[in-house]
Amino acid sequence: MTQIPTATMASAPAAAGSGATPTNPKGELGQEGFLKLMVAQLQEQNPMEPGNSNEYINELATFTQLEQITNLASTSELSGAVQLIGHEVSYTNSQGKLETGTVEGVQRSGSGITVTIGGQTGIEMTKVTQVS
Fold it and tell me: Is this structure's pTM higher than 0.70?
């Protein structure tokens, strides 16, 4: 397989002292990053020495399977959060104090699943410690 220059990868670190923030600080390869990497590999491939097409098919199949598992996990988390609506829960607030309240709603955002408890929005599911 052809080596791809690290400058084309989204997780390449910013130059020292440039003050720029990395575009992918966790180094995760999402769907868009994977597709960009795959296109870059295809563009850099030597037409006289094509890569094994089975490798690309296997990579794409693996990524598709991972995406489906991720979607299933997200759906399960959302379903679990919805089931909490109307229940009293205990949770840790942003100051680290334990509070209780009734779950009034569920939201899905780019950062994950959050709930509204007693009028307080944006409470992460990981902060819920007990359900009554």
Answer: no
